[in-house]
Amino acid sequence: MIRKLVVFTITVVFLLCSPVKANQHSVSNVKESIVKHSLELGIDPALALSIAKSESGFRHEARSSHGAVGVYQLMPSTAKRLGVDPYTLSGNIKGGLMYYKRLYKMFGSTELALAAYNAGPGIVSKYKRVPPYGETRHFVSNIMTEYHRQKSNPDPAIAKMKNSKIQAKTITSPKTVITKNVEPKAPTPIELPTQGVV
Description:
- Helix 2 packs across helix 5, helix 2 (about 25-40) crosses helix 9 (about 155-170) and helix 6 packs across helix 8.
- This protein has a domain at about 25-155: Orthogonal Bundle (Lysozyme), CATH 1.10.530.10.
- The chain is globular.
- Helices cover about 60% and strands about 0% of the residues.
- By secondary structure, it is an all-alpha fold.
């Protein structure tokens, strides 16, 4: 009896004293990484953020019962075909966006690419529209609603990246030679993609 009590006490002490694993990736860092990778791949950052919000709530530690992992809920087999590591934040984000872009090129529509992201490209090819599955329709609808919300009220991560790109462009632009009565041109603002893939 005493032995069981000692073992139980030691177990409880180890459980209570073991360090709590803190989230290694804050939501703001995840969002900034999404915006960075989406701009590099020519995908509207508002759409990229909307997909990640729906897939994982920006949680890299998210896992599904089907085996999907990370922010973009990539299946390891899909990630392998894309040549990325789905277990790293950067690899997962890049892979998710590359997969979306591939689907967009395949179907030529944001809604169909999103449906294929959820249900698989074979199903979307079979129906030639968003398939009649409640889960897939809900998935597409939620992302498109969030996307339109993001377009009218952009996430701070988008504004931060846009501002840093403008500053970087201004700092690295060559010096303007000013002659008499000539005003220097103001730096042109960076255009962000407006929908899907550009």
